[in-house]
Amino acid sequence: MPDMQAGRPAPVREMVLMRHAQAAPAPFGEMGMQADLARPLTAHGRQTAASCGALLRARHFAPDLVMVSPAVRTRQTLAAIGSFYGDRQPDIRYVNALYDAAPQTIRDLLYEVPDKASNIMILAHNPGLQALVAHWAARHCPPGLENALHQGFPPASMACFTAMRAWNQAGDGDIRLTDLSCQ
Hints:
Blueprint: E1 4-5, E2 8-9, E3 13-19, H1 33-37, H2 43-58, E4 65-68, H3 72-81, E5 91-94, H4 103-110, E6 120-124, H5 128-139, H6 146-150, E7 158-163, E8 176-181
Parallel strand pairs: 3-6, 4-5, 4-6
Antiparallel strand pairs: 1-2, 3-7, 7-8
Helix pairs in contact: 2-3, 4-5
């Protein structure tokens, strides 16, 4: 049952987990974390990220907070998304822990989200994002999204979730998958 305050239900909070768009491989012979962090988006990646931005605007998604991995490809994905609904300017935080983050690391970051941040976006990488999406979807998956879940979480995929409680208080059972877009 939703929390009640002054006789009104608590607002629904929205979260989008997004994997960066398609990135170029590291230059031949360059290996390691620095080479991986520097990988830019491909032309196709920029186009898909722009399409994702259009989809988010069509959904009227206006985040209060966007947490982004410091990798070049995640930063470029955010830039290619463009403005959010109503040209809202969210608080953008570059979070080192999102690079190559395990699902639990991403989950733990939600406990640090301020109470006032109702709508948030996390822009990061696989395999952590895919595992977290699958974990939350296993608890509640709307009909018709099961097949999309089995496709994995390719570049530029977005999973939309809702919760009635603040993100820093929501348990796994409070977080519900509402939509999935796998590019």
